[in-house]
């Protein structure tokens, strides 16, 4: 047993001894008896210091014979017998230590002064009863602390497993995005191969850089500036495909560039807007990316001027948007949302709402 534990045990029993000493002194004073406070306090501490010396033995027995499991009846019997042995031994030890203190330390040798102590039989009997209760109190306290520590360990392990599972699910969702994004990009390049081989060759190089950026990302959250840089690389491919028809407008306040957003969150929204909005209508070509803060949240919006959904039609999420929605749920729980809305027969916008954070300090069990 380390010194720290010994000191804690001694301090705990000192407090208990002083409380009992004060109680005895107050009772004696109320009865009109004059007592020496120092002597009474020291004598009161002697008994509890005896129990301080016995505490490691009792806690060791409590650990060896816990009051749980299939052998609980046997363990109770062992503790009962042990308490009936230790209690009188502790009382006898306390009695003779108290007499030794009165005779030597306090120099009290006259028989009249020894009335501070009860007779041997009375002392042993009364303190033995207290000792039995004390023994079971120590055992119960040890068991309670043990149960609490075990519960905290289980809670910690469960939290770690939940975090690991959440992280694994996020990594799985991210891995699903890579082939989805790759196939769509290769399809774009395949179309260009029939129109402009040099442009297609350039786009293959851009695609390689883009995929490297995606695969090198290990974190589930990055700054909005990094996410916009990634989207910009992707738009290089689409701008080559649509030439001058595609106009991109980015409206992001500088103070929001440092906030953290889910990695690969905007790119699927941009891809969805181009695929289902701009590419299906030759008159469309405006793509807007915006961000703003509101009530401690970050609002990210991708809007196109395509034909939009038909009035009254039900908007459905494809692979990319479903993936983003799942990742938002894993990272932020109910504090996030992804909404897809259409205008009055023209245009469509996807809006992500997440908590505002400007560092990787994580207080949510859903994150990373």
Keywords:
368 residues; alpha+beta; five-stranded mixed β-sheet; two-stranded antiparallel ribbon; 8 helices; 62% helix; rod-shaped; disordered C terminus
Short structural summary:
The protein has eight helices and seven strands; from the N terminus they run H-H-H-H-H-E-H-E-E-H-E-E-H-E-E.
Question: How are the SSEs ordered, and which strands pair?
Answer:
Layout: H1 3-30, H2 37-64, H3 72-105, H4 120-193, H5 197-216, E1 221-223, H6 224-242, E2 247-251, E3 260-262, H7 266-278, E4 286-294, E5 297-304, H8 319-332, E6 337-342, E7 348-355
Parallel strand pairs: 2-4
Antiparallel strand pairs: 1-3, 4-5, 5-7, 6-7
Helix pairs in contact: 1-2, 2-3, 2-4, 3-4, 4-5, 4-8, 5-6, 6-7
How far from one another are the termini?
A: 39 Å
**What general form does the structure show?**
rod-shaped
**Can you count the beta strands?**
7
Summing up helix and strand content along with how strands pair, one would put the structural category as: alpha+beta
Mean pLDDT: 78
Extract low-pLDDT stretches: 109-114, 360-368
User: What radius of gyration results from the CA coordinates?
Assistant: 38 Å
Strand residue percentage: 5-15%
Tell me the number of helical segments per DSSP (H or I, 4 or more residues long).
Answer: 8
Helix content: 55-70%
Sheet having the most strands = 5 strands, mixed
Order of helices and strands: HHHHHEHEEHEEHEE
Strands ordered across the widest β-sheet = 2-4-5-7-6
